[in-house]
Design brief:
The chain folds into two domains: 184 residues, 3-Layer(aba) Sandwich (Rossmann fold), CATH 3.40.50.1970; 193 residues, Dehydroquinate synthase-like, alpha domain (Up-down Bundle), CATH 1.20.1090.10. The protein contains 14 helices and eight strands. The N and C termini lie far apart (42 Å). By secondary structure, it is an alpha/beta fold. The structure holds fe (ii) ion. The site of fe (ii) ion (FE2) has 7 residues, from helix 7 and helix 11.
């Protein structure tokens, strides 16, 4: 009976996805499928100035959809961005959200669509125990997600990462199953303009999702298979996507890998994200870049618990030997090839930060599913290793 109980789970699989070059042209009919007549397009200020956003708005207007843009969303979005978006949605009498952009814009857009229908404060819906059951689902509005980077996979995720600026700037995960966007449009042409360093960083975020999900001890065979194939796509496509941003075939593979990563991490994440979230919320480091930097240190820390699993990864990825060492070597070589720094010090995290960030990492919702149990002491040691390059 105990074994059977451990095999139980709540599985939600991704949403309806329109995948392919040029499919952003289907945005208006995709809105209509969800009953959206007056979408609010939520994006970030950088994207709002680009033709792709103007084109999306024009396409909606030509199709008779009243569309406005809300772009007051910062990287590592904060509660005020969400509340301002809710105000814009109400002021314009919008009945749905087009979440358009990288992880920050997608997460903010999804949170706006959630919060427009709630009487409780947003922090009441943090991803803890059964807090999601407090949500008034009837008040939510539908979301079409349009990712323009290939990393976070928020378009196929049921949560938003929002930074709580009260006190110590903790990045909190706001969760509800219905936050899964009703539709996603994956058009690799939208990712062509992403600069090489960002392509590398967000691609490594996708890889970290697959690696951490695959390493998590939670029973979820569907996610396990998706994580493995997601890693294979990253191996096949990330170096090409970084080397030539106009390589649409590589861009397309990375876009799917990103969606697969977030689908897989319904199985849980681990110490890469536990370490990365406090760096992002306190020091404003880039999420994907931080995961990429800490990746080999976390793999090595977890080694006693994941040797067999990494051997399976090595076999599937056709690495030189079916071993943990082969996976670690591949990760190190990939990082070097695409220009990822080797230490946290290189991206502005100092030894003096380790003690302050470690308790926050221990409290992070990613920590319980790391294959080796985490606490503030071993996370502080792991921070110091990653800061000093002690591998
Ligand atoms: Fe991530």
């Amino acid at each position: 009976m105990d074994e059977l109980a451990s095999l139980a789970g709540n599985w939600g699989y991704p949403t309806s996805i329109r995948f392919g070059a040029g499919r952003i042209r289907e945005l208006p009919e995709t809105c209509r499928e969800l009953g959206i007549g007056r979408p609010l397009l939520v994006t970030d200020p950088g994207l709002a100035a680009l033709p792709m956003v103007a084109d999306a708005v024009a396409a909606c207007e030509e199709a008779g959809l009243g569309c406005a843009v809300f772009s007051d969303v910062r990287g590592n979005p904060v509660e005020a961005n969400v509340l301002d978006g809710v105000a814009a949605l109400r002021a314009g009498d919008h009945d749905g959200v087009i979440a358009f952009g990288g992880g920050s814009a997608l997460d903010a857009g999804k949170a706006v669509a959630l919060m427009v229908g709630q009487a409780r404060p947003m922090w009441d819906f943090e991803d803890r125990e059964d807090w999601w059951t407090r949500v008034d689902e009837a008040g939510m509005v539908p979301v079409v997600a349009v990712p323009t980077t290939s990393g976070t996979g928020s378009e196929t995720g049921r949560a938003s990462a929002i930074t709580d600026t009260r006190g110590d700037h903790v990045k909190r995960i706001i969760f509800h199953p219905a936050m899964m966007p009703g539709r996603a449009i994956l058009d690799p042409e939208l990712t062509v303009g992403l600069p090489a360093p960002l392509t590398a960083a967000v691609g490594m975020d996708a890889l970290s999702h697959c690696l951490e999900a695959f390493s998590s001890p939670v029973f979820h065979p569907l996610a396990q298979g998706i994580a493995l194939e997601g890693m294979r796509l990253v191996r096949e496509a990330l170096p090409d996507a970084v080397a030539d941003g106009a390589d649409l075939a590589a861009r397309a593979r990375m876009q799917v890998a990103a969606s697969m990563g977030s689908t897989a991490f319904q199985k849980g994440l681990g110490a890469m994200h536990s370490l990365s979230h406090p760096c992002g919320s306190v020091l404003d480091t880039h999420h994907g870049l931080t995961n990429a930097v800490v990746m080999p240190y976390v793999l090595d820390f977890n080694r006693p618990a994941i040797e067999d699993r990494m051997a399976a990864v090595a076999r599937y990825l056709d690495l030189p030997s079916p071993s943990f060492a082969a996976v670690l070597d591949w990760v190190l070589a990939l990082r070097e090839r695409i220009g990822i720094p080797h230490t946290l010090k290189d991206i502005g995290v100092d030894e003096s930060d380790a003690r302050r960030l470690a308790p926050m990492a221990a409290e992070d919702p990613s920590s319980p599913t790391n294959p080796v149990p985490l606490d503030a002491a071993n996370l502080e040691a792991l921070y110091l290793r990653a800061i000093n390059g002690a591998l």
